[in-house]
Write a structure and sequence with these properties.
The structure is a single chain. This protein is mainly α. Among the domains are: 54 residues; 86 residues, Tetratricopeptide repeat domain (Serine Threonine Protein Phosphatase 5, Tetratricopeptide repeat). The chain contains 50 helices and no strands. It starts with 15 loop residues before the first helix and ends in a 17-residue tail after the last helix.
Length: 853
C-alpha cells in the first residue's frame, strides 16, 4: 500500500530570536503572549514544576519534599517510569504514605497492576485516598481478566472521589468500551474533559482508542492537541509517532522522535519508538539491538510485548516470541491484542490446535466478547471459510465494540469485501485485492478506496487516479479519497487542486473547505483561501474556529483592517464560552483594534481555571501597554497556579513596569526558585523597570549560569560587549562542559558575531548532550551555512519539521531556501508559520514569495 494511504478520513534583535529559541525548553526566562497552540491550558504547569524540582534536587540531593514534588509532576506528565523511581526513593528514606500512593499510581499507569496492588498491601490502614486508589486497582484487575461487570462494581464508589475520580471514569470508560457500550464510554470521557480534571489522561485515552481502532489521523490530531496543551508530553508524542508510522510517514516520524528524545533523556519510550521506526525501515536486527536494554520494560505493556515478540519471531526466535506473549497473557488474561498476536503466531507455525486452545480459554473468560468473535471470524476467513466467518460476524449485537479493520472500514454494506482487500494489500498481495473488487462488482466507497490503493501498489497509477476521481465525484466529502488522490500527483499544489475538485463536485463539509482554505493560503492562492474560509464558516457542520479562519488569513497577510472587519462581523452566540470570546478579542488586538479589544475584555468575568483565556487577556492588555490591568489578570491567575514558574515570571515583569518595589517583594516571597534563577530574575526586574545600569552591576556579581548569561545577552548592545560576553561564556563552558543551555547561547552569539568555528564547536557539545534537539540543529544550520548550503538546508529542515510552529526555525529554513533559490518553498514555509502565529514578524519578508495570481 502506498506510504501514507488513508483509510479515513522574543523580541526581534537580529538573530537573537534564533539563539533564544534554540534553548527550546532548556532555559525559559520569558513567555510570549499565549495562543491556543503555544500555552498550556491547565491551571498548573507540571513541566515547569518538574524543572523547578529537578533544580532543587541538584542543589540539595537530600530534599525529600522536592523529590516527592518531582514524582507528582512526572506523574502528571505521563512519565510514569521516572515517577515510580522518584517516589520509591522517598518511600525508602521516609516511609511516606503519600509517596506510596504516587508509587502505586505510577505502577498502575504502566500497566503493572499486580505490582501496584502489592504496593498498597501494607500493614497500616489505608487513607481515604489509598482506599480509592485500591478500588481503581481492583477494577483494573477485574478488567484484565475480562470481568467487566466486576470492574464497574469496584469502581463505582470512586467515580466521585476528588483525586481519583478521573482515573475511575477512565477505567469505567474502558469497561464500557470493551462490552460495546460506546456511547457510555464516550460520555464518561467527555465528562472528564468537561470537568477539567485529568483531561489530558482522557484525551490520551481517546487518542489511543483511535490508534487502536485504525484511525491514525484522529489519533494524531488528538495527540497534537495534547502536545499544544502540554509541550513535550511524551505520551502524546509517542502516539503521534505511532500514528505517523501507521500512515507510512517514516521520515516525519523520525523527526518527531528526535524532538521527543530532546525532552525525555531518561525515558524508555523513545528507544521503543526508535526500534519501531528501524523495524518499519526493514532494519530488524538494528531494532532489536536498540531495544535490547529495555526488554523487561517492554513486557510490562501489551504493545511493547507484541513488538518485542515480533522482532524475536522475525529474527528466527519463535520460541522466545511465544514465551513473551504467553507471559503477558498470564499477567493479563484479557489482553485482546496479545490474544490476537499469540493465536496468529501459533497459526503461522502450523499449530492451529494450540491457537484454538488459546481462543477457547479466552472465550471462557470473556464469553461472546465481540472482539474475540471477530478474531475467530478472521481466523475462519484466513482458512478460506468466508461463509462461516460472515455468519459468525452477523451474530454480533448491533453497535458492538469492533476493533481493527472493522473500525477502519465502518459499517458499510460491503465491509467484508473491503476487509479482505485491506488484508490482502497489507500482506503484499494487491492483485488479489483487485480481483476481489472486480468479483464484488460494487461501487461501495470503501471497496473503491481499497481498489485504488491496490492499483497504485501494482503500478497502475492512472487507473488508481480514475477510480479516485469517480469516487470523489460521487462522495466529494470523503476526505480519505481526496488525500489519497492528491498523493498520486507530484508538486506542492496537488492537495489544493484535489480539494478544489471536491468543492466543484459539491462538497458541503466544513472540514473540506477548512483544509482547502489552509492549504490554498500556504501555496499562495489567497483569493481561493478566503473563498474556502467563507464556505467553512457557513457550513452546517462548522466549528467556532471556522468563523475565525478568514480573519486569521488576513492577519497572516498583514491586512489588519480586513481582519478586524471580519472579526467584528461575527455575531456573538448565546452562552458563548469565555475562551472563544477572549480568543476573538486577542485576534482583534493583533488586528490593530486594541481599544475595542480592551473595552470588551474589561467586561469579561474570567472563570476559575480559565488559564489560557486569562493569559490571552493579559496579552491584550500588554499589547495596549496597560501594565496595571495585565498585572491584575496575572495576579489572579497566579493565585490559582502558584507553582507555574513562567506565569510567576510574567507577573513579576508586568508588576516591575509599574512598581519595582512590589515586584521585588513578590520575588522574595516566591518559593521554589534556585538561587541562580532568583538572582537572574532580580536583574530582569531592574531591566523591566528601566534601571539597566543597576542590573549590569548586579549581574557582574552573580555566579555564572545559563539564566545569568541569557539576561546579560538581552541587554548587550555593542559588539565589544557581546565579544566580552562570548569569551566569558566560552571560559565557563570549558570549565563546565555539561551545561547545554550555555553551549546553545554561546553558539547563537558566536553565529551573530561571525565566529562560526567556535559556534560549530559549541553546538557539537550541545548536540551530544541533547541529541536531535531542534534548537541545536537550527543553530548548527546557521553555523554551517557558508561551509555547505546543502548540509545547512538538511539541518534546518530537520529542525523545522520537528517544530514547524516555532517562528525562529521557520525563519532559518526559509532564509536558506531563498539562498538556494527555492523562493516558492520559502514562501510556503513562511505562510504556514504566519497562519499559526501572525506575530512572527521575522517571516514577513518571505510571505509574498511564490504568491499565485
Amino acid at each position: 500500500m502506498p506510504g501514507g494511504w488513508s483509510g479515513r478520513g522574543m523580541p526581534n534583535m537580529t538573530r537573537l530570536p534564533c539563539l533564544i529559541a534554540a534553548l527550546f525548553g532548556v532555559l525559559c526566562l520569558s513567555t510570549a503572549g499565549a495562543t491556543p497552540d503555544k500555552e498550556t491550558a491547565s491551571g498548573e504547569n507540571p513541566r515547569v514544576a518538574m524543572l523547578r524540582y529537578e533544580a532543587a534536587i541538584k542543589d540539595d540531593p537530600d530534599d525529600l519534599d522536592a523529590r516527592f514534588g518531582l514524582a507528582e509532576a512526572l506523574l502528571q506528565l505521563g512519565e510514569y517510569d521516572r515517577a515510580e523511581k522518584m517516589a520509591e526513593i522517598v518511600m525508602r528514606r521516609a516511609s511516606d504514605k503519600e509517596a506510596r500512593l504516587v508509587f502505586a499510581e505510577a505502577l498502575l499507569r504502566q500497566g503493572r497492576i499486580d505490582d501496584a496492588a502489592k504496593a498498597l498491601d501494607v500493614s497500616y490502614e489505608l487513607s481515604s485516598d489509598g482506599a480509592a486508589l485500591k478500588s481503581v486497582i481492583d477494577a483494573e484487575q477485574a478488567l484484565s481478566v475480562g470481568n467487566y461487570e466486576a470492574a464497574l462494581r469496584a469502581i463505582e464508589p470512586t467515580t466521585g472521589h476528588p483525586r481519583y475520580a478521573p482515573m475511575a471514569r477512565v477505567v469505567a470508560a474502558r469497561a464500557f468500551y470493551a462490552v460495546g457500550n460506546l456511547s457510555m464510554a464516550k460520555r464518561l470521557i467527555d465528562d472528564i474533559i468537561a470537568d477539567g480534571g485529568d483531561s489530558l489522561t482522557a484525551l490520551l485515552f481517546r487518542a489511543r482508542l483511535a490508534l487502536r481502532a485504525g484511525d491514525p489521523g484522529t489519533a494524531m490530531r488528538l495527540a497534537d492537541g495534547i502536545d499544544a496543551l502540554d509541550k513535550g508530553n511524551i505520551s502524546a508524542g509517542s502516539i503521534v509517532i505511532e500514528a505517523l508510522l501507521r500512515e507510512g510517514r517514516i521520515d516525519e516520524a523520525r523527526a518527531r522522535l528526535n524532538r521527543l528524545k530532546a525532552v525525555s533523556l531518561d525515558d524508555p519510550r523513545p528507544a521503543y519508538l526508535e526500534g519501531i521506526i528501524l523495524a518499519a525501515e526493514g532494519k530488524t536486527r538494528d531494532a532489536a539491538l536498540r531495544v535490547g536494554g529495555i526488554e523487561e520494560w517492554l513486557t510490562y505493556n501489551s504493545g511493547g510485548a507484541i513488538f518485542l515478540a515480533g522482532l524475536k519471531s522475525e529474527l528466527g526466535f519463535s520460541s522466545q516470541a511465544e514465551a513473551i506473549l504467553r507471559q503477558r497473557l498470564t499477567a493479563e488474561p484479557g489482553d485482546l491484542a496479545v490474544i490476537r498476536e499469540l493465536t496468529g503466531l501459533l497459526d503461522r507455525d502450523g499449530r492451529a490446535d494450540e491457537a484454538d486452545e488459546v481462543m477457547k480459554r479466552s472465550l471462557s473468560i470473556m464469553p461472546g466478547h465481540p472482539v474475540l468473535v471477530q478474531l475467530e471470524a478472521d481466523r475462519l476467513a484466513a482458512r478460506g471459510d468466508f461463509d462461516a466467518s460472515v455468519a459468525l460476524l452477523s451474530k454480533l449485537p448491533e453497535g458492538a465494540a469492533q476493533t481493527g479493520l472493522w473500525d477502519v472500514l465502518g459499517q458499510q454494506n460491503d465491509d467484508v469485501t473491503a476487509a479482505r482487500m485491506f488484508a490482502s494489500i497489507r500482506a503484499g498481495d494487491p492483485q488479489s485485492a483487485i480481483e476481489m473488487a472486480e468479483a464484488a462488482g460494487t461501487d461501495d466507497i470503501m471497496v473503491q478506496n481499497m481498489l485504488a490503493a491496490a492499483l497504485a501498489d501494482t503500478g497502475e497509477i492512472e487507473s488508481a487516479k480514475s477510480v479516485l476521481d469517480r469516487l470523489i465525484t460521487k462522495e466529494p466529502d470523503f476526505l480519505a479519497a481526496i488525500v489519497n488522490r492528491a498523493g498520486l500527483e507530484p508538486g506542492p499544489t496537488a492537495l489544493v487542486d484535489t480539494l478544489t475538485l471536491a468543492e466543484k463536485a459539491g462538497a458541503t463539509s466544513a472540514r473540506i473547505h477548512r483544509q482547502l482554505a489552509i492549504e490554498a493560503f500556504v501555496v499562495g492562492d489567497t483569493a481561493k483561501a478566503l473563498d474556502a474560509a467563507s464556505k467553512a464558516a457557513e457550513a452546517e457542520d462548522s466549528i467556532a474556529s471556522d468563523k475565525l479562519l478568514t480573519a486569521r488569513i488576513h492577519l497572516a497577510m498583514g491586512q489588519g483592517e480586513e481582519a478586524a472587519a471580519s472579526l467584528m462581523a461575527i455575531p456573538t452566540r448565546e452562552n458563548e464560552p469565555v475562551s472563544e470570546q477572549v480568543y476573538r478579542l486577542w485576534l482583534l488586538s493583533l488586528a490593530g483594534e486594541e481599544e475595542k479589544a480592551i473595552e470588551a475584555a474589561a467586561k469579561i468575568a474570567l472563570p476559575q481555571n480559565e488559564q489560557l483565556a486569562g493569559l490571552q487577556l493579559a496579552d491584550i492588555f500588554d499589547r495596549a501597554d496597560d501594565k496595571e490591568r495585565e498585572a491584575g489578570i496575572l495576579a489572579t491567575l497566579r493565585r490559582s497556579a502558584p507553582d507555574n514558574l513562567s506565569l510567576t515570571e510574567r507577573y513579576l515583569m508586568a508588576l516591575a513596569a509599574e512598581d519595582l518595589s512590589a515586584a521585588q517583594r513578590a520575588l522574595a516571597s516566591t518559593p521554589g526558585l534556585s538561587q541562580e534563577l532568583r538572582a537572574a530574575l532580580g536583574a530582569r526586574l531592574l531591566i523591566e523597570a528601566g534601571r539597566v545600569s543597576e542590573a549590569r552591576t548586579a549581574l557582574e556579581k552573580m555566579t555564572p549560569s545559563a539564566a545569568v548569561f541569557a539576561t546579560e545577552l538581552s541587554i548587550a548592545e555593542s559588539p565589544a560587549e557581546k565579544r566580552d560576553l562570548l569569551g566569558r561564556m566560552a571560559r565557563y563552558s570549558a570549565a563546565t562542559p555539561g551545561d547545554a543551555g550555555v553551549l546553545v547561547l554561546l553558539s547563537g552569539l558566536a553565529i551573530e558575531l561571525g565566529d562560526l568555528p567556535r559556534a560549530e564547536n559549541a553546538l557539537s557539545g550541545a548536540l551530544a548532550a541533547m541529541p536531535g534537539n531542534p534548537g541545536v540543529l537550527n543553530n548548527l544550520a546557521l553555523a554551517r551555512q557558508k561551509k555547505s548550503l546543502v548540509e545547512a538546508l538538511r539541518l534546518a529542515e530537520e529542525a523545522y519539521q520537528a517544530a514547524p510552529e516555532e517562528p525562529a526555525f521557520a525563519e532559518t529554513y526559509a532564509s536558506l531556501l531563498v539562498e538556494s533559490r527555492d523562493q516558492a518553498r520559502a514562501g510556503r514555509v513562511a505562510r504556514r508559520a504566519l497562519l499559526a502565529d501572525p506575530r512572527a514578524e521575522s517571516l514577513v519578508p518571505f510571505r509574498d514569495l511564490g504568491l499565485r495570481g
